[in-house]
Amino acid sequence: MTNTISELDAATIDVEIADQSRWTATTWFAVISMAATSFALVSAEFLPAGLLTPLARDLGITEGTAGQLVTATASVGAVTALLSNVLIGRLNRKAVLVGLSALAIGSNILASIANDFWLLLLGRAGLGIALSGFWALSVAVVARLVGTNATGRGMAIVTLGVSLATIAAPSMGALISDWLGWRIAMAMTAGLAVLAMLLQIVSLPSLPANTSNSLADVFRLTRRRGVQLGMLAILLLMTGHFSGSVYVRPFLEQVTHLETRSIAVALLGFGIASVIGNVAGGRLADTSVRLALAVTAVLMALAAFALVLWGAYPGIAFALVSLWGLAFGMAPVVLPTNLSRGAPDALEAAGSLMVVSFQIAISIGAVFGGYIVDHYGAAAPLTLTALLAASTAGLTLLQPRS
């Protein structure tokens, strides 16, 4: 890992000083506010998975159409990610983060009161902007809060909110919608964003802009070998993950022959393991990001390939699904940290490329996974996951030792 970077400006010097000291209570509070924001935003992003049936019935649309709410959020996010760090110019980054939370609040409220699909779609588009803007800034902000040598640890805490939201949002959304209605469930995500925004206001220090990016600056980063390898790692590993993980349930139904209750337990194991992986990934990334990427990729490849071979046995399937969850929990920490190492002097621009890479990988994975499962069966997408994850592990051989 590169422990020092060029002293480009005062902000960089401050980060290097932070590397040498332990985290204070103020630092912890600031990082936790970022984690609370990730939890609020991702909860809102994945909430429709638990609301599709009542939402579609109330608005008079099909469940397939309602499912496009998640697609709309991701699509808007991909476009916004390229432009976000250009549009914010030299605004104070704390003000930007608070503004993005305010946008999430308004978007969730709009979605909760929407009386037609297009108004609901508009609310989800606003959420997509808030999501992409937050994640594009996240690595740069965390590095300024905790220091470059502890970025992996800091991002592990921030992305812990993602793991928790992935587990909680769909199930809690379904329960709340059955009890109080889907609109109340949507409104409650606005409440989560309010809490996150208040935490940001109270805990985040002033974060004056130390750079002003242009679109050309963002694209110029793609000439760097480290950035190229970082983006390629995201594209390979996340395309593999999303091409297979979406179809784990059909695999467990058709190959392992599990009942719904057993599948729910297996997926819960996936979620719990992902939380553990989140913490482990942060620690390992700060020690050696190259090793962390290799371990993440190998674990995912091993889990997916072994499921194809021995997934018919329930006990083995349970263990392998949890192993996959462990690898997936490491990925959102390791992959951004890996990419940021290629641009330590341009973390915000690198953050934009990171978000775009993730969104493209999600889209490609969903398309290829759907085609493969329709034509070759439930085990085929998992084979693709194993191959792409193994390719990512091989990619680490091209990276410098850290």
Which class of the largest domain in CATH terms?
Mainly Alpha
Strand content: under 5%
Query: Tally the helices: what do you get?
Result: 16
Say what oligomer this is.
single chain
- Report mean pLDDT, rounded to a whole number: 82
Q: Give the name of the CATH architecture of the largest domain.
A: Up-down Bundle
Can you tell me the CATH superfamily of the largest domain? Answer: MFS general substrate transporter like domains
Let me know the number of strands. Answer: 0
Order of helices and strands: HHHHHHHHHHHHHHHH
Based on Cα principal axes, name the global outline: globular
pLDDT below 50 for ≥5 consecutive residues: which ranges?
A: 1-20
* Distance between the first and last residues' Cα: 3 Å
**Could you estimate the helical fraction of the residues in percent?**
over 70%
By secondary-structure content and strand pairing, the structural class works out as mainly alpha
Biggest sheet character: none
Count of domain modules: 2
CATH overall fold name of the largest domain: Growth Hormone, Chain: A
What does the radius of gyration come to?
A: 20 Å
Q: How does this structure look, described?
A:
This protein has 402 residues and is mainly α. Helix 6 (117-146) packs across helix 15 (347-376). It folds into 2 domains: 10-203, MFS general substrate transporter like domains (Growth Hormone, Chain: A), CATH 1.20.1250.20; 215-398, Up-down Bundle (Growth Hormone, Chain: A), CATH 1.20.1250. The protein is built from 16 helices and no strands.
